[in-house]
């Protein structure tokens, strides 16, 4: 009867059974139990819509942010604008699932005029020039490759290649899953294995599908910060993962609990924020944000330095101007001493008319001790009058006035 009505096998990519290896460094994987008795140590696979959205978001960000100089030794010579062509991918990166220790090579082919420079990234972070773990390959036909000789759990993640020339930037990504042990082909042993954690759901056709978990990944994280005491300080980050990660903030290794000075917010666009208001000297230190879900955890750290709040004091006279009388032609010094925080600005007037610092025969002096002086040299009869000195800062303003009399020269 079975031979009379053969059952058509579904293509491998349509089979719904999946599973996940436990451990913080093992993102969820999907594999087919009835393909072979033992999974190949190296396979291509099709990523989920979630993974594709994650890679697209990384590509979008990278194409709009500065990068460190490429090490592929490509130089962009001046080419007439009409002959330039923006980079184009003839072949894009693929997605791979490999056993730990197996080599893997991400390969693409890109063309453009002038020849594009190529940059490689893992999880949005640029793979820099000097590294023994990654080998970058570039051939004359536009083929570019990133080779990992012996994969390990840390290699698990999203890999992006970006090509750039003066006409524009373009990028594509591939996902790598590194499995730490042999994957068995039978469904029943996998369900009972302690190494698998998943939840069975029903789909429309009645076939069971197991939920996939993704370790948290920070799409946006702040760097070291300098903030002012007494003001609002905001630390923003954005994280992805399935299920949605829970976030915990620590200061110098100790959890930060919500109170009237510390608040944790989540905006509709997925931005998580730690708000500190007002900022105090005790808030300085090492901040760590830990994102955790069923698939594992991820974290970042930063140093927050707090600039001491400036104490503001209104200007105050330690010594005021004194009335003075002097013979014509002799130098005149109108002196006082003023303090304040921040140090005040000084202004001089004669009979309510502002004295310009560039006025002939007049010069203004002050030092860090608060000494203030208006020097008139030589003096003339028309210099006689009422002189006012004013001191002003953010906390207030003060002034005082004195009389200057000029006597005629004695014969």
Could you explain the architecture of this structure?
This protein has 3 domains: 40-179, Immunoglobulins (Immunoglobulin-like, Sandwich); 216-307, Sandwich (Immunoglobulin-like); 313-407, Immunoglobulin-like. The protein is 5% helix and 47% strand. It is built from 2 helices and 30 strands. The strands form 7 sheets. The chain has a 6-stranded mixed sheet with strand order 1-3-10-9-5-6, covered by helices on one side. β7 and β8 (143-148) form a beta hairpin. The longest helix has 14 residues, at 49-62. The protein is elongated, with a radius of gyration of 36 Å. The N and C termini lie far apart (144 Å). The model is unreliable at 1-39 and 182-209 (pLDDT under 50).
Question: What is this entry, summarized?
Answer:
A 6-stranded mixed β-sheet has the order 1-3-10-9-5-6, covered by helices on one side. The chain has a 5-stranded mixed β-sheet with strand order 14-21-20-16-17, with no helix packed on it. It is mainly beta.
Task: Describe the secondary structure blueprint for this structure.
Layout: E1 42-44, H1 49-62, E2 85-91, E3 96-99, E4 104-113, E5 117-122, E6 125-126, E7 134-138, E8 143-148, E9 157-165, E10 168-179, H2 187-192, E11 200-202, E12 208-210, E13 214-220, E14 225-228, E15 233-242, E16 246-251, E17 254-255, E18 262-266, E19 271-276, E20 285-293, E21 296-307, E22 313-319, E23 324-327, E24 332-341, E25 345-350, E26 353-354, E27 362-366, E28 371-376, E29 385-393, E30 396-407
Parallel strand pairs: 3-10, 14-21, 23-30
Antiparallel strand pairs: 1-3, 2-4, 4-8, 5-6, 5-9, 7-8, 9-10, 11-12, 13-15, 15-19, 16-17, 16-20, 18-19, 20-21, 22-24, 24-28, 25-26, 25-29, 27-28, 29-30
Family: Belongs to the myotilin/palladin family.
Pfam families: I-set
Protein name: Ig-like domain-containing protein
